[in-house]
Design goal:
The chain has 12 helices and no strands. The protein is mainly alpha-helical. The chain is globular.
Length: 242
C-alpha cells in the first residue's frame, strides 16, 4: 500500500517510498504511523538484551533511534524551538522556521533532548521487563503523531509533506489507535492507556505551543512533537512505573 510505504519513507531512513503517489495517499499515511514505531521499538528491545552495562545499552538504543529516523525529529525540534522562542510575531517566527541555521534555543534543546532520552533509557533498563516498555514507547509516540495529524492545523502558507499529512479523518485515527493498541495491550495491558495518554499530552502540548507562537503546525513542529512524545512517556515509565 502506498500510504504504508509513505509512512515508513517519511518517518525513517528506509528507501521504500513509492515513486508516484497522490495527495490522498499522503493524507492517509498517518493512519500507519504506529506501525513505523514497531521496528524502532523492536530494535530497542533487542538492544536491551545485549550483555553490557546499562549505560552502554542506553547509548546503543539512543544511537539506534537516531539512526532509524536520520535525525529528522531532532532537526524538527531545533527548528521549532528557534522559531517559537525567537521573533516578535508569528510572521517573523515562521521566517525563522525556514532558516536552515540552528540558533541557541535549538542547540540547547537538542542537547537536553538527547541527554533526557539517554538518562531515561538508563532508568527503564533498570526496570523489570524493560524490553516491553522499549518496544511500546516508539509505537505510542508515532500514535501521538497520528493524533496531531488529526487535530492540528497548518499555519498560513505552510507547504510540503508536513501540511500534506494534516487532516486525518476519524476512521483513519481509529485505525491508528487500534494498530497501537494491538501492539501495546498484549505486553502492557491496561498500562497501555497510560503510555498513550502521555504521548497524547506531549504531542498536544507541542501543537498548542506552535498554534500560539506560530499560528499553526508544519513538518518541523510535527517532528518535534514525535520527539517529545517519546521523551514524556519515557519519563512516565522511568519515574512512575515500578
Amino acid at each position: 500500500m502506498k500510504a504504508l510505504r509513505l509512512a515508513f519513507s517519511t518517518l525513517t531512513v528506509l528507501p521504500v517510498g513509492p515513486r508516484r503517489f497522490t495527495a490522498l495517499d499522503l493524507k492517509a499515511s498517518p493512519a500507519f504511523y504506529p506501525a513505523v514505531g514497531l521496528p524502532i521499538g523492536g530494535t530497542a528491545a533487542a538492544l536491551s538484551l545485549v550483555p553490557a552495562p546499562p549505560q552502554i545499552r542506553a547509548l546503543l538504543i539512543l544511537l539506534a533511534w537516531v539512526g532509524w529516523t536520520g535525525c529528522l525529529h531532532l532537526d524538527g525540534l531545533a527548528d521549532s524551538l528557534d522559531a517559537c522562542f525567537g521573533g516578535r510575531d508569528p510572521v517573523a517566527r515562521r521566517r525563522i522556521l525556514k532558516d536552515p541555521h540552528v540558533g541557541s534555543f535549538g542547540v540547547v534543546g537538542l542537547v537536553l533532548a538527547l541527554l533526557s532520552e539517554y538518562v531515561l533509557l538508563g532508568g527503564i533498563l533498570s526496570k523489570a521487563r524493560p524490553a516491553y516498555w522499549l518496544l511500546a514507547v516508539p509505537v505510542a509516540a508515532r500514535w501521538g503523531l497520528s493524533l496531531a495529524c488529526a487535530f492540528q492545523k497548518g499555519f498560513p502558507g505552510s507547504k510540503g509533506l508536513g501540511s500534506g499529512v494534516l487532516g486525518l479523518g476519524w476512521g483513519a485515527l481509529a485505525f491508528a489507535t487500534a494498530l497501537a493498541l494491538a501492539v501495546l495491550l498484549p505486553t502492557l495491558g491496561p498500562r497501555s492507556i497510560l503510555l498513550l495518554a502521555a504521548a497524547a499530552a506531549a504531542s498536544s502540548g507541542v501543537g498548542a505551543l506552535a498554534r500560539v507562537r506560530l499560528g499553526g503546525t508544519n513538518g518541523d513542529v510535527l517532528g518535534a512533537g514525535v520527539l517529545m512524545a517519546e521523551i514524556f512517556p519515557l519519563f512516565v515509565v522511568a519515574g512512575l512505573i515500578q
